[in-house]
Amino acid sequence: MKRVLLVCLLALHYLSACSREPIVLTVMAAASLTEAFQELGELFEAQNPGIAVTFNFAGSQQLAAQLAEGAPADVFASANQSQMGVAVDSGRVDQGKIKIFAQNRLVVIYPRRNPASVEALEDLANPGLKLVLAAKEVPIGQYSLEFLEKAKLDPAFDTSFADRVLMNVVSYEQTVKAVLNKVVLGEADAGIVYSSDVNGEAAGKISQLMIPDELNVIASYPIAVLKDSQHATQAQAFVDFVLSPTGQEILAKYGFMPAQK
Fold first, then answer.
1. How is domain 2-103+220-253 classified at the architecture level of CATH?
2. In what order do the strands lie in the sheet with 206-210?
3. Residues 27-36: what's their mean pLDDT?
4. Residues 79, 30: contact at Cβ < 8 Å?
5. For the segment 217-236, what is each residue's pLDDT rounded down to a tens digit?
6. Is 32 helix (H, G, I), strand (E, B) or coil?
7. Domain 106-210: what homologous superfamily?
């Protein structure tokens, strides 16, 4: 009788454990992190049974606005510090808990068939070239404008270079992925994205033109647990995983640079 009772209790415990809903972490992350964070999320779930990670990928400015409006989330990973600052100002993030987890740099891309014959940065100012950039409120868009401002001070470029480049812009996009896709599809002759975006299938459809260090802009990526996260312990575990050697290896695999110590 006791053995039957024990077996029944164990069965009930097993059924209860199996029916237990997993903890769902909502991670808001910059669009440029899509592929890297998807792999990070899968590995984190495998190492932490009972936790499921769901992502909201968009432009950092869009995510910061959603957070300011009260959208529920557990982790925010931005492509720049100013949008993380918006989350701090809205009361969703504790300034003292923010960590820089990766860096990135700009690169000019163009379709592999190169219809506009882009061979040097100076070619971005050629009349008739169709250039696509991210909007200035998007981190990559602001970084692109900073690159052009630096070029104004470089004697290798004439003083009208930046203005002529901006005259060639045919659209301003809300995410870096939108810029990438327009160039991949041949809807633009060139665009400016992060070096980490040149991966996967896209890498086989585009070519890239390096921007030298003196003109480039290094993007720093901050991450933080939301102050009102309903799963703060698990959310912190995800942040720690991103910062771990394993997490950093995955980010490097997708072209991200490690954060400066």
1. 3-Layer(aba) Sandwich (3.40)
2. 169-173, 131-134, 190-194, 106-111, 206-210
3. 96
4. yes
5. 999 999 999 999 999 999 99
6. helix
7. Periplasmic binding protein-like II (3.40.190.10)
